[in-house]
Amino acid sequence: MPKEKVPPGQKVVTKFPRLDLGVVPRFDESSWRLRVEGLVEHPLDLTLKDVLALPHVAVTADFHCVTGWTRLDNGWEGISFKTIVERSRPRPEAKFVTVECGDGYTTSLALSDLMADNVLLAFALDGEKLTLQHGGPLRLIIPDKYGYKSAKWAERIRFTAGKEVGYWEQRGYSDTADPWTEDRYG
User: Fold this and answer.
1) Which domains does the chain have, with CATH numbers?
2) Residue 23: exposed, middle, or buried by beta-carbon count in 10 A (0-12, 13-18, 19+)?
């Protein structure tokens, strides 16, 4: 395996460990929504059926956890974040995005970070529907960041002018979350 495939300080695993805040939210498809709001021209209120009707993308990408493990070549399927941007049309002053999750978790990123071709809202992993334990029905995937930026149970996407501090960043973790520079802690 080429060394450049695995960031420094990481160990390759074959299973996908489950790490979260210890609260797996209940999921009821009839009431679940993905809301896109904030500094956008067209707020969205999407059912799971609406989300699944959007154009799909498939991305093969590695997943790097801040705790030191990497799982290679994950087959993610979902909605490109660019599709959400195209549909909601953020206003010019929208420079950041906060993702709020069903367990109370939040993360915030620069909008420019979310515009990479490999960033998606995933509903499947390795050809299988994403399980609730791994963030289903919908989870943000940002392969170029440590996993704590890839928020599970995404339910609300807010476009903002200023940067908001996410759950782990409030607790001393790095905001850049770059696995290639081992930028784990702020």
Assistant:
1) 33-175 (3.90.420.10)
2) exposed
* pLDDT digits (tens), the chain, 186 positions: 444 789 999 999 999 878 777 778 888 999 999 999 999 999 999 999 999 999 999 999 999 999 999 999 999 999 999 999 999 999 999 999 999 999 999 999 999 999 999 999 999 999 999 999 899 999 999 999 999 999 999 999 999 999 999 999 999 999 999 999 999 987
Q: What is the pTM of this model?
A: 0.93
Q: C-alpha angle with apex 2: 183 to 125, nearest 5 degrees?
A: 70
CA distance 48 to 71: 27
User: Do 121 and 79 meet the contact criterion of CB atoms below 8 Å apart?
Assistant: yes
Report the distance separating Cα 92 and Cα 169, nearest Å: 26
Would you tell me how many other CB atoms lie within 10 Å of the CB of residue 160? 17
Distant-in-sequence, close-in-space partners of 78: CB < 8 Å, separation ≥ 6 = 56, 57, 59, 120, 121, 122, 123, 124, 138, 141
- Report which of 75, 61, 71, 59 is spatially closest to residue 10, judged by C-alpha positions: 71
Q: Using CA atoms, how far apart are residues 165 and 150, in angstroms rounded to an integer? A: 15
